[in-house]
Amino acid sequence: MSGLMATIQAAVHIAITSQKIQFTTKDDTHYHGLLASCFLLSLLILPMVKRRVYEIFLPTAGRARIYVLVCLGASVTTGVLQLLRILFRNIVFGRKSVRISIKPHAEDIVCAELRLPRPWTVRAGERVTLGVPSVGLFYLFQAHPFSITWWEENDEGKASAVFLLFRARTGFTRKALNCLEPDREYWAWIDGPFGPSSVHQCGSTRDLGDYGHILMVTTGIGIAAQLPYMKELLQRRREAGVRTRRISLVWQLDQTGDYECARDWLQYLLKQDDGYMLNFSVYDPLGKSQDTRKFGHHELITVYSGKVDWTQVLTEEMQKRKGKILSPHNVGFA
Hints:
The chain is an alpha/beta fold. The protein folds into 3 domains: 41-90; 99-194, Elongation Factor Tu (Ef-tu), domain 3 (Beta Barrel), CATH 2.40.30; 209-326, 3-Layer(aba) Sandwich (Rossmann fold). It has 7 helices and 15 strands. The protein has helices at 2-20, 28-57, 64-90, 172-179, 223-238, 258-272, 310-320; strands spanning 99-104, 109-120, 127-131, 144-147, 150-153, 159-167, 186-187, 189-194, 213-219, 246-252, 278-284, 293-295, 301-305, 325-326, 329-330. Strands 9, 10, 11, 12, 13, 14 and 15 form a 7-stranded mixed β-sheet that branches. A 5-stranded antiparallel β-sheet has the order 5-6-2-1-7, sandwiched between helices. Strands 4-3-8 form a 3-stranded antiparallel β-sheet. A hairpin with a 5-residue loop joins strand 5 and strand 6. It is extended, with a radius of gyration of 30 Å.
């Protein structure tokens, strides 16, 4: 009864005071008074809500234990399945488990090679989660996601080694650069591969090979996301599995050393390009020479000084386009 009387008196005082002043939440006194009023009002409402809610959930109280057990069972099942998947991917009797070796490049760029005990057919856009205990004790059970940049295939066409390309920032990537010696193998474990999404005829997503002309735009270390698609398209082109007739890569470097990390792979792609489908344009904003330079197989890598004129590039590509054009792009990432 005393609580009810206090609430009524407070409501009367609030009503009288609100007639004398103009209420605004910008005033701390008014704002805190509003909060106090809400709490007082809740003292009247909560008992009624509590009674109704209790009556609603009373019949299900006996089944709460079943719900908890079901959730616990689902969690344990998914955990066991993930553990089995990791063991399947990393352990093969008679072979070494996953081994990692790194090759540092300029500007803190790292190329990590993973030797796989159980090869699989890699698709462009796939990613794995990586753990390297040698980086530190706390990294033993940590998994870090990376996109697959490149892969080497065995006689069966499956990847016996995959390559990850990233720029060391902070945390795991910085630890990997500082703690792992170049060209030395370390034990590692992976989970995956994950992605990419499947393309169905009834869906809205189209396959990359359905486009006759593909303009790839990237900056800095973002080249790591474009390389696997070019590699896959060339392989499918030799098998007459795509409609693509021209692939143009426009790559603006963030730092001068970015080009070195992908140079060998670009050269390899050009040598595999029997139909002259590829055309690479590299822009170096920090370049001192104003001359245009040509490199690579058949001199199909053109290096310009300065930044990209995107309007001019798009206009030229539209004039040269062959069939439907697609422009996937990727900005530099770690």
